[in-house]
Amino acid sequence: MTTNLDVTESSSSPAPEASAAAESRRIALVGVPNAGKTALFNALTGARQKVANYAGVTVERKEGFTTTPDGTRISILDLPGTYSLRARSPDEAVTRDAVLGRIAGEAAPDVIVCVADATNLRVAIRLALELKQVGRPMILALNMHDIALRQGVDIDLAKLSAALGMPVIPTVATRRRGIDRLLETVEALAASAHSTSPSSWHEPTAAEVRAGHAAADRIVRTATRPPTRPDTWTGRIDNVLLHPVAGTLILLLLLFLMFQAVFAWATPVMDLISGGFDAAATWVKASFPPGMLRSLIADGIITGVGSVLVFLPQIMILFLFIILLEDLGYMARAAFLMDRLMGAAGLHGRAFIPLLSSFACAIPGIMAARVIDSRRDRLATIMVAPLMTCSARIPVYTLIIAAFIPRQTVLGGLNLQGLVMFGLYATGIVSALLVAFVMRRLLWRGQVEPFIMELPAYKKPDPKNVAVNVLLRAKVFLQRAGTIILAMMVLIWFLSSVPGAPPGATEPAIDYSFAGMLGHALAPLLAPIGFNWQMTVALIPGMAAREVAVGALATVYAVSGEGDGPLGSLLAAHWSLPTALSFLAWYIFAPQCLSTLGVVRRETNSIVWPLAMFAYMLVLAYAASFVVFNVAQALVG
Amino acid sequence: MSADNHYHLRSLGRSLSQSPPPILDGYDADLVRLGHGAKGLKGVVALVGAAEPAVAGAISAAELERRLLEIGFVEGAAVEILHEGAFGRDPIVVRVDDTRVALRRREADAVLVRLG
Asked: Residue A266, Cβ neighbours under 10 Å: how many?
């Protein structure tokens, strides 16, 4: 496998490990899911982390740094949680190759630290035995040691260490206990080169996994005694939270709260951000002489940066919820409760969080798809997320509905306008599930990923760990998606303002720009779905974000001298009902948001998926609008 | 015999008549497929990897066997079905020795359990 580090993805901080001095060490953290590996990583590195992608796969490469008291630099690689080094997908091959030192330009780690949950040893010890075959110096970090002690698990560290043939260091990652001893041991092991031997690792067969379990079982029985006060809380809480009725209701309540938070709590901050950037743009317009430069700064760069930052509140609130639920141990339970519903559309139980978040905005939603481990499940979720009705569609929907749908009650008391709005939401949901279903059938026929996951014991989340992880997500968004979104915003500005209007121009400036030319050129293509050229032109700046289309329509119409007054009544005078309905249908499906495509590009680490998304959404939008326009035309006459 | 067990055996019988599991020596009336069990089923894992090829889905039966083994479903492990999903009683949560694992019934069917 030719996995290379994608250097363009790395953070702005210079890569210090490039100047690898003799005393710099590299360690890799490997462990089964829920062993507290990320908490240990955060305890080791603090905020000194950077996230990149391995070329060609969706796996994140998380690396952090620390310095020991005697000045040795240690780089720590956090690898995805796994039960075996055996790669089940191209993504998981990265973990294996990183540990084995098969990645080009990246040496094998000096020391492998296997992170184990001290309260749940057998599976972890089997993994440690498998990792031993790699031949690198190894340490077993016995994490959550405090919980084991509290439960009265008696672990004989000396016996365990002797049986495994590696140092065993008890740690409590959330309290930074055992971290210094862990680093000292890393240093001591790395200094004694003789502990390295050639790798004899190979994919374990089923028989070898069984033998590994038997060996792990023997080790656990000789070195530990079972808890005298086992955790009974998890079982008791599960009786409520996994109850078919109560559990489902609690989940719905939690989801409602989360949706409210992402949708409503973020709004004041978002308004503040966009207000601030609008004010800055206005100030620039007032303080600089008119011209291209002023327009670039005010409408291109300031507006562009604003349109990146405006996503931050939603992303941080959403990830705060996700990380809290994950650290509590609830996320796996929620996936269990939702699996059947999601599974009907061929999606994973965990897909509901990204999809729900997409009702606020597809961008945090698509980023949230990271909670899904399997690559196919994650891709299917990402691909349908933009079909969920995001909040940016609401201004478009309300404008058109208010202008064209009569304010009347139908079917005994139902508000027709509300009914249309509901229909637009429902169409989005149903089509997302259908697309996911069809995608599964076409691309991965019959290949249902198995749903097998451990439900961890409930734990109190560590505030510091939660804060570090939320900030990391914000940083990753700004560094990776933010740059691409900003570039696209400047591009849209360029298309909409260059070339400028000639002297004595009668039409709005946008009409003379590239966007205007493009709009006029595309108009014949969109005529069959009832769009006039003004709409086609407005769609191009509308690529910046869906709600921008409202402003763009105002620009195209209001300044074109065809009258002023509220945009709604203006549209009502200019558009036929079939055209308006066709426009609504267009907005359910059309890929009218470049930021979404930018995030998909980053999250899938590929150009193919955003292009495929653009294509399928465009086809659906055109088809839906065509049908709606012609049916409405035939009915209205 | 409890009503619960009666249910397991009946569904097991149907499943076996379609395609017998690849074991004969160990087979007796106390063996059930984990995926056919109801909440409260208790027993010891008798065999892992008893999936029919069509059941495994995206992964081969051998791959499913290894994944089940890796997460702790190994012969001799004590298992108990703790919870069932709200819709169609699928997936299920199974206690495997000291851990809890959620899995769909189709995957759980690859585990044969000796009741006890």
From this structure: 24
* Structural domain range at position B46: 3-115
User: What percent of chain A lies above the pLDDT cut of 90?
Assistant: 40
Q: Which residues contact B114 (CB under 8 A, 6 or more apart)?
A: B30, B31, B43, B44, B45, B46
In whole angstroms, what is the distance from residue A165 CA to residue A118 CA? Answer: 18
Q: What CATH code would you report for A7-231? A: 3.40.50.300
For chain B, what is the domain count? 1
What's the confidence (pLDDT) of residue A301? 85
To test the contact with chain B by mutation, choose from A331, A452, A458 the residue with the greatest count of B C-beta atoms within 10 A, namely: A452
pLDDT in tens, A549-590: 877 787 777 544 444 457 788 888 889 999 999 999 999 999
- Closest CB to B58 among A332, A448, A455: A448
Q: Which residues of chain A have pLDDT under 70?
A: 1-23, 53, 55-58, 89-91, 193-195, 263, 446-448, 558-565, 637
Q: Which helix (H) or strand (E) holds A314?
A: helix A312-328
Amino acid letter for position A637: G
Count of CB pairs separated by less than 8 Å, A with B: 124
Q: Are strands A49-53 and A138-143 parallel, antiparallel or unpaired?
A: unpaired
Q: What is the CATH number of the domain that holds B78?
A: 2.30.30.90
Q: Please tell me the predicted confidence (pLDDT) of residue A18.
A: 41
User: What pLDDT, on the 0 to 100 scale, is given for residue A157?
Assistant: 95
| Best residue of B63, B98, B109, B111 to probe chain A, by most A CBs closer than 10 Å | B98
